[in-house]
Amino acid sequence: MIPVTKSYLPPINEYTAQVNRAFENEWITNRGQLIRELEEKLKVYLEIDNILITNNGTIPLQIALKLLGNQGEIITTPFSYVATTAAIVWENCTPIFVDINPNTFTIDTSLIEAAITPKTTCILATHVFGNVCDIEEIDRIAKKHNLKVIYDAAHCFGVKYNGKSIFEYGDISTCSFHATKLFHTGEGGAIFCKDEALRHKIFYSHNFGHNGPLDFYGLGINGKNSELHAAMGLAIFPYIEMIISKRKEVIHYYLESLDFTKVKAMELNPSITWNYSYFPIVFENEASLLKTLETLNKSEIFPRRYFYPSLNTIKYTQGASMPISENLASRIMCLPLYVGLKQNEIAEIVKLINA
Ligand SMILES: *Cc1c(COP(=O)(O)O)cnc(C)c1O
Fold it and tell me: Rounded CA gap, 192 and 170, in Å?
């Protein structure tokens, strides 16, 4: 069976060595030594000066929207994982969808201004598949209309834009360290923010609002991650470069051998250093996608329809129609991509798709 992805697992003795440290410390959560050490390692690796590790990649979106959304209208993309939209609704804000660019799959900035109303508080855009949004234009619009910018950068571990970590952009940026993501801690995530005052609010918000054991700065939730998850992150950390380079090899093979007269790849932002996080291909129509999927499934190959359906069509959003996103969602899927995917397996996938 060839799944769309497989979680990278470090050698088990290297994982248990990290877990042993938590046992020796007799400290398994609440910002112990391992979480703080992982944060320091990631700061150096990602070349950033702040990071707060959280228990997943959804809570950071909720905290960002709690602090900046003000229960208002949030301009957002319909082409993302459901967590982006769900976080908006969960925080009693209203998602206002803006259609996407059909080639880069990110929010179409030329449509944003028409969607702004007096109730708009934020733009929440996804750097989908690690491809970067039109950051300059989003910044310009946000400044002009006094809006906050939140980036769902769940797919962006290691991505750079103009030589700088992608997590440096926006008022708040978030990442996911879920088991299916490029770098993972089983469950986990992170939140990034350059403004010190806002960072302070984020910090206490992720720890029940605590100001010491007996006092509270304000409302909070539990966004902390455990030492057991940090142990996984620390054990995987030495392998990050290897993980990225193996994925790069797989993607290069796909790029060289797929027949691109019939399918299309994502158009990457030219100023990006990409992380090879996903390999989406777009078919001419949904029928051709479904037929290919059926053929692959018969050979025990299971790509995923990322992202389907377009988020403006799910029951609780009732968004306006988003023709480009809906059309793309009907024709796109992500091909298997993970460390350990064998050469003959990739060749088989390519052969079936080309046929
Ligand atoms: C994975 C993902 C999330 C949620 O992250 P979790 O760690 O699973 O909570 C949010 N947004 C996008 C775009 C994702 O792919």
Answer: 9
- pTM greater than the 0.90 cutoff: yes
Residue nearest ligand 1's atom 2 by CA: 154
Q: In the block, which residue shows the tokens 């690690």?
A: 130
Question: Whose Cα sits closest to atom 10 in ligand 1?
Answer: 83
pLDDT at 318 over 80: no
pLDDT digits (tens, 9 = 90+) for 123-136: 999 999 999 999 99
Q: Are residues 64 and 205 both part of a single domain?
A: yes
In angstroms, the CA 291 to CA 9 distance is 33
* Alpha carbon nearest to ligand 1 atom 13, residue: 81
**Which of 62, 81, 206 to mutate to test ligand 1, by most ligand atoms within 8 A of the CB atom?**
81
Encoding tokens for residue 81?
């994982």
Number of domains in the chain: 2
What is the rounded average pLDDT for all residues in the chain? Answer: 97
| Residue 231 shares a structural domain with residue 246 | no
